[in-house]
């Protein structure tokens, strides 16, 4: 049988904290900079389980997932390899603590997000913000 | 570096035809039976491009994608390997013709879908039908 190559599934999380804030992580590895918490999905793990696990590992918070938002799959979205990320919206309480691949984790007010962000995460946050404010989902 | 194993990304399509009908395919391979058209996403290909390609190959129709609906990732959803499928809703005109992995392709009225369906496709169709009728998306 021919061997096919497929993109790799990941999850990313928009974690909402009280006070209209969202949690970002400063990445330890390349590309450096601020990004959404997230990571690879393991074989045998659902997207939802991966999202909860990544939040625990990278920002030290127990997240309650509220929604599967959208999957982003542009082959150029990550310079290292082709990933397909499913983005979740969740809520948590408490203060985030960076761990695993995150040098630090910090809540930002929506009105003062750092720029630029890694990958397509500025686009994702723009889409989520619009959705939270208007109920309008990202179009294809 | 340790080697990690990840699930494989796929797409499945709910293709709506005029007359409140949806297109299903009869699978050539195991597991046999009726299912949604769909298949593996290639490296370098977006989910949306994969969905349009699979519709062309399996049911011979040019589909206009309307929505990314939901991603289903239960590790038990496919007995052969762990797949994460992103489901699209699209529209097409004309009559489907089975090709590639499909022995045949046929439109069914929503009120007379075959049963059982392969994989979790009955659940997916139930979720999509509810969404089309009520605007209510699948909850986590």
TrEMBL record, chains A, B:
Keywords: Hydrolase. Residues 6-133 form the Nudix hydrolase domain. One of its GO terms (molecular function) is hydrolase activity. The keyword Transmembrane helix does not apply. The keyword Cytoplasm does not apply. PROSITE patterns: NUDIX, NUDIX_BOX. CDD domains: NUDIX_NadM_like (cd18873). InterPro entries: Nudix_hydrolase, NUDIX_hydrolase-like_dom_sf, NUDIX_hydrolase_CS, NUDIX_hydrolase_dom. Transmembrane segments: none annotated. It comes from the Bacteria. Belongs to the Nudix hydrolase family. PANTHER family: ADP-RIBOSE PYROPHOSPHATASE (PTHR43736), DIHYDRONEOPTERIN TRIPHOSPHATE DIPHOSPHATASE (PTHR43736:SF1). This is NUDIX hydrolase. It comes from Anaeromyxobacter paludicola. The lineage of its organism: Bacteria, Pseudomonadati, Myxococcota, Myxococcia, Myxococcales.
């Amino acid at each position: 049988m021919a061997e096919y190559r497929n993109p790799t599934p990941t999850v990313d999380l928009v974690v909402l904290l009280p006070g209209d804030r969202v949690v970002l992580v400063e990445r330890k590895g390349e590309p450096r900079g601020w990004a959404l918490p997230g990571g690879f999905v393991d074989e045998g793990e659902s997207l939802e389980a991966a999202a909860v696990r990544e939040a625990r590992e990278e920002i030290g918070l127990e997240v309650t997932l509220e929604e599967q938002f959208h999957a982003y799959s542009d082959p150029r979205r990550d310079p290292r390899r082709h990933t397909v990320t499913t983005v979740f919206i969740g809520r948590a309480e408490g203060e985030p603590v960076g761990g695993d691949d995150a040098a630090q984790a910090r809540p930002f007010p929506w009105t003062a997000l750092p720029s630029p962000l890694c990958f397509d995460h500025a686009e994702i946050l723009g889409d989520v913000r619009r959705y939270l404010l208007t109920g309008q989902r990202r179009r294809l």
